[in-house]
Amino acid sequence: MSKPWVSIRRLKAFGMLGMNCRNVDFINRYNQRKHFPLVDNKLKTKLLAQEYAVPTPGLKFVVREQHEISHIEQQLADLDSFVLKPAKGSGGKGILVVTGRQGDQFVRSSGVLIDITDIRRHMSNILAGLYSLAGSADVAIIEDLIAFDDCFLGYSHEGVPDIRIIVFRGYPVMAMLRLATAASDGKANLHQGAVGVGLALDSGRCLKAAQFGRPIKLHPDTGCSLSDIRISGWRDILLLASQCYDMTSLGYIGTDIVLDKFAGPQLLELNARPGLAIQITNGRGLLPRLRHIEHMSLNRRFRAEQRVDYSMHQFAEESSAAQSPDAG
Amino acid sequence: MNQKWTFHTILILMALIGMGTAVMRHLSAGTPFLPGQAKSVWLVEARVDFDTTGGPVSASLSLPDAHPPGFELFEEQAASPGYGFTVLGEGDNRRAEWTKREAEGEQSLYYSAQLVESDSDGASAAEPVFSSREYNNYWEDAQELAAKEVLGLARGKSSSPLSLTRELIKLLNSPSSQNAALLRSDTLGQAELLIHFLNRADIPARYVMGLYLEDARRRQILTPMVEIYTEQEWLLVNPKTGDVGVPPNLLLWHRGGVSVLDVSGGKNSRVHFSMIRQTVPAAQLAQITKSDSIFSRLGVQRLPIEEQSMFKLLLLLPLGAAVVVFMRVIIGLKTSGTFMPVLIALAFLQTSLVEGLISFVLVVAAGLALRGYLSRLNLLLVARIAALIVLVIFMISAFSIIGYQLGYSAGMTITFFPMIIIAWTIERMSILWEEDGPSEVVSQGGGSLLVAVIAYLLMQMPLFVHLTFNFPELNLVLLASILAMGQYTGYKLSELWRFRAMDDL
User: Fold this and answer.
1) What CATH number is associated with residue A296?
2) Which residues in chain B are contacts of A4 at CB distance < 8 A?
3) What's the CA gap between B107 and B265, in Å, rounded?
4) How high is the mean pLDDT in each 10-residue block of chain A (328 residues)?
5) Is residue B32 part of a domain?
6) Residue where one domain finishes, among candidates A119, A143, A167
């Protein structure tokens, strides 16, 4: 139905950002190595976020040593639901979501029942560094479960939908919604088969959607039409993303934000090497927007609100223009 | 922009310096650009080690004749600080002698010779001397009896000294013969045993030590051989196989005289050999010693041979590294572990491609199966990898032994693979399998192997081996290209496929 490749000329016309260009021109240039631990360690990110009054899911406690695991049930006693995750995990690895209890057993988000020994083993694996990037020792974080917003009903299989926003020098430049599918096993990672829905920067409505690098119209599990998606409270979400720049001093980051039914947008984690698939879900390349921000004479005193307003205005027209042929 | 210009200028300069130096080396030292235009020269280095016992020290090492069969000696030197050095004797009886009044601790003496391959038959003129008769006396009665019987049997089946020798070797090798077993259990080696028999049969025979020349070998020892005197000439016989004649890669090091090495004033003396094959054009061959050109002084060839063998491999590494950079940055191939493919390629250089590939895939596949069990044991990560290393070593030993028993000596080559790297590869692959499924394992594992094979194919090409070793400065060109690729911000080839959906949107 279509060619298995796209020409370099076409990619340039779209302004697609390639991996080499991202690494050399953006990550190496705008992200200082010394700031990486702030985002590679979710515990550090969380503590930093609390310092800057950026909302994140509430931290219950941290397990740092193997010996704490043997009497962990006392600490879990008054938690009905929680999320257990490695501080240095990447790509959604090692995240255990408990949604409730049934007698002595815990109910996972998939509905599977597990008992305390399973939780102990999982914690032990986390501490040993099974999920951390270089296999280095890690700590386990136990935090509040997100009560995910009703607006995503029917759009996600098991996992929590999250919103990925690329923030360049404090300016949001592109956004997408990531929906877990059966193929992605409840994870919100595009390369594992999650659906990515490109979001217009001015309004938070759906632009295009893709799974496995191919365009789609309906959620593969639930059959809901993806083009109806429109995120409410969009400006607040962008604001939250933009604040992460002040927080970390990293020029080029991906922010992962979830919507809590009660507490509103929450920062889940940050990524100093955000992926490139967001461009496919938006149907446009990042490069023109990045170069635009890069060539702007930056006024350091711009606050997050001003930056968000600028992005919503500057990148709005392009977004709706990109969408109009689709709608028509 | 300015910064980019300086960077590019530096790169171009670097490449130019590399190429310029190579060209100047070619012009001044005459090193050829292509392999094969040159003669091969064997650099053989003998190293004598011993511990002093105090007092004056003298060491004497048997040396090859100036024209050993198949070779021509054109240059020899000794390097041993503080020692007096002379070469005594002539022909088969040449010996090197080191002497020193006072020496303390461990001593290492070096003798190195440069030999050109030639067609000389190197016939030894020495008349046979029956001095070795005295060997005969120390056989016990039972052995004496057995020897008589063996000799009788061999005599019955042979007609000439040569055929008698062959029959004797056959009998001594035969596993069923009790007589042979009785004699073999003696402390004598096969060569000495054979000489006893030959002397008994009144065939002049002598004990010879040969050195098998193989490129870039270190810590080699001499192989005992036997020469018999028949029809006015000495004939070399391999006492193990019975093959007659000098094999092309065998250098006859010791042909006459008493012993290979004599040390007085020292104990624990031993000698071992390093060797390397160099390609030197005929012109350079003649003036290699006189050439004080800066290039020949700055060449790797001036290092001790043991180091040179290592450099031969070391100088190939940049090529492998450049291949990895190219495949990852420009092509966009996924590999498991950044430079694991180069290490695998190095291992392939030692084994050979097909055998290396088969054994690598076998070990990793078996390791994955075992790792599946380990993951159920709920071990800590460090312990799991340590256990995996032990298992990998077990597997490699098992494969080697089974392979050897089945008659594939190729099984032994598995040991060239870096164990720790294999263990880590298995661990990573296994995690990849659990998290991203077998398809990702196949794609990354296949990617790594593909890169390894490409790197191997380039690294084993005689042209590149020759260029990197003789023109080390060409690695500057590689470095420049690696740096240039490090600044490449264009699309990877794989991204043309990855972003293919852009055309449909």
Assistant:
1) 3.30.470.20
2) 497, 500
3) 11
4) 77 90 92 89 92 92 89 86 88 84 87 88 86 79 86 78 92 92 80 88 89 86 85 92 92 92 90 90 91 80 87 72 40
5) no
6) A143
